[in-house]
Amino acid sequence: MISTKIKYIIIFIIYFSNFCYSKYVPSARYGTSCVLDKNNNIIYFIGGESGGTKNCLNDFFYLTLPDSNMQPIFEEITEPPKEYCWSSLSLAEGRNQFQTVSDNENNYLYIFGGEKNNKFFKDMNILNTKYSSWNNMMILGAQKIINVPYWADYTAIMLSSGEIVYIGGRQSTSPNGLNVSFAKMNEIYVFNTKSSSWDIINTSGNVPDSRIGHSAVLNSNNEIIVYGGASSEDLVTLATPDLVILSIASKPYQWIIPKVENVPKSRSFHSAATVGNFMITAFGYIAGTQNETNLISILDFSDTANVRWTSYDMIQASQTDKEETGLKETFISQNLAVILGGTIGGVVVLSVIIVVTILLYKAWRSHSNMRGRHQLPSSQSS
Q1: Which residues span the membrane (predicted)?
Q2: Is the Cα torsion angle 137, 141, 143, 144 positive or negative in sign?
Q3: What are the domain boundaries of the chain?
């Protein structure tokens, strides 16, 4: 009986401790910027756009990446800044649909092209982060004149050689956005930061669809992993295959299609970053639709010939938490009388035990004193 009441008391305490704890789950979105803190295995996210409101968001939060198979955890940072979307975390100018590339060794940030209000750009802006100074340049090819297109929605990867590889996106023949087409995937534009020049490298292998809204990350094997995106302006047509690898170990570059396990729904306009042998993707559109998601997917590319996905549906996890909280509330409401009765009853029983113990102790002491008096010798005996 007492053990049952104690059980209810423990459940009551656990419930209220869980009730006071709330898990932060960011809303579904697209066009979110992210940056990786490699030292602490944390990815920081800022803003994005919500289709429900068509407004830029201003929340600032980070994703802690666990060492084990535990689910990744989001934490919100208070006092968010101005609303941002379709930008880079190294925002520099009044334009969007571009990607910032950092040269940490030489303290430079590179921003190429972009778009603003249907106006396309093709200039290269270079920020010296040490002296906070800008350079803006229109650049020609080193050995031949290369007419770099006006360009937006690309991905850019900095190589250890000091070259920046640009993949995918929309290109225009004029700043007014005339004759817009998707960038060819069999011709890769490369910018050499050491010579400040462009080159075009042809590719071989299984050339994938042209695309926008994709991501690209570099692994330790000199391979660029390209994921997701759409091959049409309306975002309805999926870019296939959705996961491809560009080997840049030698020229021409080579496209490789790996074997993929646990394939999640493809996405576009998502965020992506690498930690060790893992690529973490978050948010974006479910490709082929304009439905936003806050799905977290982790790609294990330890073996690039056979890669494997693990996904975490943060919305479903949030709903599960709410359902569990609802079950707890239902349990408490239905058993509140039993819990309170058990608690009060337990206190009463404990009080009775204490009182009885005290009375028994007093009786025992009194009896002991009486026996002591009978055993004392008479002081009048001779």
Answers
A1: 336-361
A2: negative
A3: 212-314
Cα-based angle 312, 316, 319 (whole degrees, multiple of 5): 140
Digit-coded pLDDT (tens) for 278-298:
999 999 999 778 789 988 999
CB-based contacts of 337, cutoff 8 Å, min separation 6 = none
Give how far Cα 81 sits from Cα of 35, 47, 51, 56, Å: 16, 9, 20, 12
Cβ neighbourhood burial of 173 (10 Å; 0-12, 13-18, 19+): middle
> pLDDT for 322-338, tens place per residue?
444 455 455 445 555 55
Sequence-ordered list of residues with C-beta below 8 angstroms from that of 158, at least 6 positions apart, any chain: 101, 102, 103, 110, 164, 218
Smallest Cα–Cα separation from 45: which of 53, 324, 37, 106?
37
Q: How distant, in Å, are the alpha carbons of 44, 156, 158, 346 from that of 224?
A: 22, 10, 10, 65
Asked whether residue 356 carries a pLDDT value surpassing 80, the answer given is: no
